[in-house]
């Protein structure tokens, strides 16, 4: 499961729904796997406002990943700033720009880091623990099991 998923998960127990400490679930004994995927700037931009930044930071720290900046990046931080256009008289005729067509957006390092952390870093095996009730949800082969035993539902 992608780390991004943890941004949207709370404990499934009804008694935990109202407790702030049931979010986020805390990964334990997690075995991480990097599954590379294509960076999608539009997608990153869309999820940015919905990210629970400080919680994701905490999860990253719990997993021993490189720490995220204290405040979330802005939408503008996701693309590399276009270098100011040079006057045509100065442009070397021989130079071929590799920046793609006009209007093409180039993902910044920030976007790449975010993509790597949220969408390529996955929990393959381990547990997700509720901070409120302590219930452990098993993650096996990348899939978290949220079925609760009958007495906990
Ligand atoms: Zn719980």
TrEMBL record:
It comes from the Eukaryota. GO terms for biological process: rRNA (guanine-N7)-methylation; tRNA methylation. GO terms for molecular function: protein heterodimerization activity. Residues 62-111 are annotated as: Disordered. Residues 95-105 have a biased composition (Acidic residues). Pfam families: Trm112p. Belongs to the TRM112 family. PANTHER family: MULTIFUNCTIONAL METHYLTRANSFERASE SUBUNIT TRM112-LIKE PROTEIN (PTHR12773:SF0), UPF0315 PROTEIN-RELATED (PTHR12773). This is Trm112p-domain-containing protein.
